[in-house]
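FORM 7B: Structural annotation worksheet

SECTION A. Query
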Amino acid sequence: MEFSSNPLMSKKRPALRQCTRRNFSLMILVSALVLPMIMSVSALSCGWWGDGEDDDGDAIVIGADGRPVSETRPGGDQPGDKAKGNLAPPGVEVPAPRSGYGMVIQPNGHAVPYLDAIGGQPVYSIQQLRQSGFPAVVDLGTSPEVSALHRQETEMLGMKYFNIPIREKNIAKADVLQLNAILAAKENLPILVFSASANQLGEMWALYRLLKGANQDDAVMDGRRFGLTKKSVHLTYE
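SECTION B. Predicted structure
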């Protein structure tokens, strides 16, 4: 016995195939539009300063006042910070899950420890830093690959982002000149200068002071306020 095909169903099959193709194309289009948005939100929520990128997985310690508690780590985390018992100067360590150190260059050109600059305000993230009136941030010692992510997050918030990667073991004169150019633009101030190493932070400021005409003793003294451990600094690395 032969069964004849339904003429109505035969007419519907091409229309169904066309509809399926349209739906599939629509799904691809939606994915192309939504996926970058999801990735951008993920990058923003990750946080690069003060609110994320916790390498060692330590939990944030919360004090009685409900704010994060800073734990001073002897010597810092970088090769230049290995002197045992060398505590970071008061106010320099940023209270955050990830160890870091900061100084703020004020509009008058003076540098102060980060915690002194914020005056006890609960500023523990890059978002809060923007809300507190900081137009820019300098990221010291971060590789170009990582700094690309940091730049994206910072600029999404309307802030300027400057990276000084410091490619050599010693801070080069070119690195100090780059900082000098950043600080010369008054619209960038006040500005946070951030580093994973207190020693690196202090050395950069000492070299900057040397560049601006300070003598060796005064430059080293200024650098020690932010974590410098060296007995002398020199602008000899090109």
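SECTION C. Observations
The chain is about 40% helix and 10% strand. The domain at 79-224 is CATH 3.90.190.10 (Protein-Tyrosine Phosphatase; Chain A).

SECTION D. Sign-off
Analyst initials: ____
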